[in-house]
Amino acid sequence: MEDKTEKFELHKFIADKGQKPLRIDKFLVDKIENASRTKIQTAAEQGYLLVNGIEVKSNYKVKPGDIIQLMTYYKPEKTELIPENIPLKILYEDEHILIINKSADMVVHPAFGNEQGTLVNALMYHLKGLDLFNSENQRAGLVHRLDKNTSGVMVIAKNDEALTNLSKQFFNRVPEKKYLALVWGIPKENNGTIVGNIGRHLQNRKLMHVFPEGDYGKHAVTHYKVLKDYGYVSLVECILETGRTHQIRVHLKYLGHPIFGDTEYGGTEILRGTKYTKYKQFIHNCFKLMPAQALHAQNIEFIHPVTNETLSFTAELPENFKLLLKKWEDYIQNREIYSD
């Protein structure tokens, strides 16, 4: 039987000086990936939620400067990070921030099964010598993330001042993030907004799901605009109002238009088109050309953490994404070839 008398720190946060009074369970839900208010409330009931070293209940109101610790009865394993000389596509860099165009095949931070070859491993090498990028810091300057098979622009903080400021910006949804996605079908409305809570799928915990009614999941809003109609697929621009795990992928599936090539959310099925063999072969060639979901973080706009200047960065589409769109351009111009 495990000894649950000793407590170990799992997460630690220091409330910002401008923090407004907010229930601690709500505060932590937005801070901890995959957390739920129910889990946090349970932790509080069991004495694993501390503020300034004292156990608190889940209705405690967080105040400026509070030191918040979520504890656990087991000692979390620490994995030593290995710096790796992995090439990065750098869009901009100064002494405070680094902006990169992440490739679709790169995992952002180490996890079980992906201990090496991640963006964090690359940052440990390229930014060695900086305090944030040591062998025990699993998140090393990260203020947001992209899924493994999603390419595009990412912001990295290079020091504590930048990390604190940018983390607050992302928490308060200050940055504007624009994505490009190739989706199955053409939405009925050229412009629209998708609203629906996102939470873990009740049957498959590796996936996310939209819960349009009730309190389960986290509030999520995605704005979209159709940029190009390719007949059976369309190119869509998405702007995130919130930043939930798999948000665009799950919201577009909920709308009835999964992202082309998305293996986890139904995008690798031939969902629109003809029954002809040539068309099916065309689709399979498209999948082979781009073996990842056709989703790219194209642009981000935010405020520089030190100069307060408004910055905007655009990441060029990967070459295979460009070729995929070219194939669909050719398809709509030569559609009769695929109907034989």
Q: Could you walk me through the main structural features you see in this protein, from its secondary elements to its overall organization?
A:
This protein is of the alpha+beta class and 340 residues long. 21% of the residues lie in helices and 27% in strands. It is built from 7 helices and 17 strands. Strands 7, 8, 9, 10, 11, 14, 15, 16 and 17 form a 9-stranded mixed β-sheet that branches. The chain has a 4-stranded antiparallel β-sheet with strand order 1-6-3-4. The termini are far apart.
Class based on secondary structure composition and strand pairing: alpha+beta
CATH architecture annotation name of the largest domain: 2-Layer Sandwich
The first-level CATH class of the largest domain is given as: Alpha Beta
CATH overall fold name of the largest domain = Pseudouridine synthase
Strand content: 25-35%
Order of SSEs: EEHHEEEEEEHEHEEEEEEHHEEH
Helix content: 10-25%
Q: Shape from CA axes?
A: globular
| Radius of gyration (Å) | 22 Å
Number of helices: 7
Low-confidence stretches: none
| Number of beta strands | 17
Query: Could you state the CATH homologous superfamily of the largest domain?
Result: Pseudouridine synthase
Alpha-carbon distance between the termini?
68 Å
Largest sheet: 9 strands, mixed
Number of individual domains: 3
* Global mean pLDDT: 89
